[in-house]
Amino acid sequence: MSEEKLTPRNVDFSEWYNQIVMRAEMADYAPVRGCMIVRPYGWALWENIQQALDRRFKDTGHVNAAFPLLIPMSFLEKEKEHVQGFSPELAVVTIGGGEKLEEPLVIRPTSETIIGYMYSKWIKSYRDLPVLINQWGNVVRWELRTRLFLRTLEFYWQEGHTAHATEQEAREETQRMLDVYADFAINEGAVPVIKGVKSQAEKFAGANLSASIEAMMQDTRALQAGTSHFLAQNFAKAFNIQYLDVNNSLQYAWTTSWGLSTRFIGAIIMTHGDDQGLILPPRLAPFQVVIIPIFKTESEAASVKEAVQRVQAALKAAGIRVKVDDRSEVTPGFKFNDWEMRGVPLRVEIGPKDIEKGTVAVARRDKPGKEGKSFLPQAGLPVAVADLLVDIQKSMLERATAFRDSHIFDPKDYAELTEVVQHGWAYSYWCESPECEKKVKEDTKATTRCMPLGGDEGPGKCIVCGQDAQHKVYFAKAY
RNA sequence: CGGGGUGUAGCGCAGCUGGUAGCGCACCGCGUUUGGGACGCGGGGGUCGGCGGUUCGAAUCCGCCCACCCCGACCA
């Protein structure tokens, strides 16, 4: 058989990633360059991501709504930085119903403008604030180089847009949602992330401050896994979002926006996967357990099937997402490999020997071979499985965190910085000048990722120019 | 947009000193199999990226176009 084995990560990480995405049936290439089809298994993962995030959004007082896909071109042009940032990657509709449009419509690359326009109509008084709206949707950005999930012309995400009476409230919201993303990434995705502030060069077009969560992939490149922006009054002024305060004086509102996209699926793949395929965190996995029946004879088949159904029902009743692979056309060995490719956290095998002994064989996806294999009594299995899933979730986070921490370096000088960013991240003092940032990028292709705030570091000297520096920043090659 | 490469069955490829298309995998049928990627037999499937030229005859030679991939300048 051809293509049984994945290209190993240490041979060609990109190729490994592409093969996983295709062979785990997460996504496929669309007929249009740079566009992707999210297949049912990939979308099921996305739905679990959505649920985990949406719950957190609701818990922090947000509500969902839907804004249109098409935005008048003139809206984009109202915020100077915004249009400069996005104009190179806009898709524009110029014909509708066979007629040339009077004003071109852009397919939203993000929705600050049209939402700002609506907010200006809805917000009249301080009593209307804050407005805390999120939308789940898709956006289009005409990227040149694309990768499935990581960068495609169209992608799915959520974008939160909030308006507040005061600067402080808006800053707090920016931080709150960054914290929500970090909590989600760490506790649901088992993806360790670093929270911090983006440099001026890396920030969102139109924001005063952008913050992000940054994750390290297994090739040590950084992936921006979510962003939260403090937009100050930039969009409020561009779209006239004004309210009367308690003193009856007219004020501009303060707005924020924050987003997390299907790119996070790429983060999960590249954080956890191994040379057998995906490894999904139990809390997000579409199937947490796959049951594989094993039998030879007819009579074995009958008793195995009975046990499989019983175990399935018991696990399901305990709230565990379980799949039975009862395909007759492939062998158990094939199924083992198949579900390992798809990253199901736990495999349960039930065969004649288990019927005899009242057990099942259990194999952990995160621990290949004998190490992860055990035999458990059928009685009380749901509790044991639930415990195992918790343990898998925990050890996945621990492993990813250990990997990341062992690839973050504190270079002594610039020469060492240029070396360490080839196989890790550098955490160094930076004077925050664009020139120093640019020099690192030109010399090494590494960019500043983020500056963690409230760190324990005191003032120091810029790793590049030696001038005084207040903060440390992560330098890394990024996706 | 600059450099490099590839287009032949769903996927991966061979055929390229011109003679009307083949292999592996996948797929369909039947049978035997099933605790780590099963096997046998039978079968279906192709405007050879497109257009034009050379020729009795083009997947093959020539020209133009198109698409996609990889590497560089921008990005969730």
Task: Spell out the blueprint of helices and strands.
Blueprint: H1 13-23, E1 27-29, E2 36-38, H2 40-59, E3 63-64, E4 70-72, H3 73-76, H4 80-86, E5 91-96, E6 99-107, H5 112-122, E7 131-140, E8 154-164, H6 167-187, E9 194-197, E10 209-216, E11 222-230, H7 234-239, E12 242-244, E13 250-252, E14 254-261, H8 263-272, E15 289-293, H9 298-317, E16 322-324, H10 332-341, E17 346-350, H11 352-357, E18 359-364, E19 373-377, H12 381-405, E20 408-409, H13 414-420, E21 425-430, H14 434-444, E22 447-448, E23 460-461, E24 468-469, E25 471-476
Helix pairs in contact: 2-6
The protein binds one RNA strand of 76 nucleotides through strand 11, strand 14, helix 10 and helix 11.
Characteristics of this structure?
single chain, 479 residues, alpha+beta, BirA Bifunctional Protein, domain 2, Rossmann fold, Translation Initiation Factor IF3, 3 domains, 7-stranded mixed β-sheet, 5-stranded mixed β-sheet, 14 helices, 25 strands, globular, RNA-binding
Structure explained in plain terms:
There is one protein chain. This protein is 35% helix and 26% strand. It is α+β, with helices and mostly antiparallel strands and 479 residues long. It folds into 3 domains: 13-272, Bira Bifunctional Protein, Domain 2 (BirA Bifunctional Protein, domain 2, 2-Layer Sandwich), CATH 3.30.930.10; 289-387, Anticodon-binding domain (Rossmann fold), CATH 3.40.50.800; 408-476, 2-Layer Sandwich (Translation Initiation Factor IF3), CATH 3.30.110.30. The strands form 7 sheets. A 7-stranded mixed sheet has the order 3-7-8-14-11-10-9, with helices on both faces. It has a 5-stranded mixed sheet with strand order 16-15-17-18-19, sandwiched between helices. A hairpin with a 5-residue loop joins strand 10 and strand 11 (222-230). The longest helix is centred in the last third of the chain and has 25 residues, at 381-405. The two termini are 34 Å apart. The structure holds one RNA strand of 76 nucleotides.
